[in-house]
Amino acid sequence: MKSIRSIRIAAIASVALLGGLSAAALRQDAASPLPKPATSGGMSLTEALAKRRSCTAYSNKPLTSDQIGQLCWAAQGITEPTRGFRTAPSAMALYSIRVYVVDSAGVHEYLPKEHALKTLRADDLVAGLQALVAKPAGLGGATTAMILGMNLAPLAERAGPRAEKFAAMEAGHIAENVLLQATALGLGSIPVGGFDEAKVHDLLKLPEGIRPVYILPLGTPKG
Asked: Is the pLDDT assigned to residue 29 strictly greater than 80?
């Protein structure tokens, strides 16, 4: 299976040749469709619950586009297109959490409706992110990380002072989905909260109003 980086580069190159634009000009803000997620079969929920463990060391094997797509779908994939309901519950269905993927190809935002990744930055910031995460767990050498960021503005209008509580609950729902999906795929992860939110926001240049609250390293467990 091809990695998401190789697929994205090939797609960008094709568009550049057709449109006469440079690949560099197209890399940022490009949206790349992800492979269709599996919605049945695989490891049972009971088995995934029994096998889930926190992983603190990963091999340097990159994730495939299929794996990233499945993990993003587990986080916030659309499960009822007519009403836009997703895999994780959200207060008043406002979906105050944004999902970002950081890998060697850059920083990408998951777009649930399109089941695609939109590239926000095209530079490799994995090492920089590793340096900002507190030890002992850190990112364990993972080549990919998922960032969950709060966007409280829409929720605050409806929930008032309870907005942050509801958003934190939503982030927890999403994180557990991802942890179990990683287990079912034979991958490892661990919920990470020991980091400076402002520094992570600045490093990744996340949009204004987005507060990073969760980091989930993702990869093949080492050994």
From this structure: no
